[in-house]
Design a protein that fits this description.
384 residues, six-stranded antiparallel β-sheet, alpha+beta, 7 helices, 8 strands
Length: 384
Amino acid sequence: MAEKPSEKSPEEPGESIPDEMWERFVQDSERDIRTSEAPKEPSARARMVTERLRQQEARGELPPGWRTGPAWQEMNGRAARRRRMWAIIGIPLAVVVAVVAMKPSLLPGDFFGTDPGSRNAPPLPEETAPETTAPGSAPGTPTLDKPFAGSPALRYADGAAGIVLPDARPVGSFSKDQVAQALERTKSLLVDANLDRETLLGGRPETVLDKVLDPQQPEMLDDAKSWLREPGKDNDPLWLFSRFDPDEVRLVGDVVKTRGRTTFKAGRDGSVAIHADYTFVYALAPADPDSTEVTRTIVRRVLDLELADPAKYRATPGRLMVIRHDQDLSNSACDVYDGFLHPQFDSASAPSGAPPSGPTTDPYDRSRDIGASGSESCGTVSRT
């Protein structure tokens, strides 16, 4: 309780405080003390934490950043600036990304590997239906390092990887496994006749002659062998095989580009009718090892093969008969019947063979029916 001051002595100047005012002061002070919150003593845990932090600070063991890190107001301010910066930069950047996604060619170089002239151009998806138009143009010029630059074939599959067989199923009296074996032999024929390096350089296609063609088919096997032995206008091995004269040209690299598809259905009297339509693109250079010039020859083959039922036909089980063979040979000399393809190079002083007399065609246009286009004529190719 507050103590009342003593009254002043008569010698001191001034007036004394009236009793009523002092009493009111004392009452008001006591009421304020009762209503105010008295200071609380720290808990034992708080005292312990405080003491531990004091001791750590004395030993220099305070956690990193304690009292030295940025105030939360400063951190929040930087975050706000980052958000504003993203609002300013992010929207235009999103627009640029969207435009480039729709047209990657706007970027310099080939960041996404979409340039058809790039070594990293994405491969075409598997051909699952007849193509309806010719492929677009492709920039670039073939070189020894990039022999398929400037060609739609850059995006074709490599070699046998481009011969994708359909799933087998039973047909007529043939089981699923027998149909699968016939499809595999179809692929073996295509590979041996058009991709095997020994065949391409003038060798004998052993697999086709000894393991695929049916010896029971009248004259077919004997004909194929005679074409190879004595090539001529009426005995041309190019009707079935792709071959180059190694004294004239050399193959560039180890890859032949391939595109096409194989289908099958039930044929006559329960046979399996197999249809194969493929384009093969060969990169070539003159045989002179010092030459760096590169050109391409494009060969498209359409084959109708048949797995005949030995119970109904004179046939060898598992072997294939050739019902139709059509070919389109592009960038090869006209009217030369020595059993080899003869690609033309820009540096040649004069083209070999007879001058072309047929129409100009696009060898990459797989929508054309080469059987109906007059394959006997020798025309001009629009590109190689």
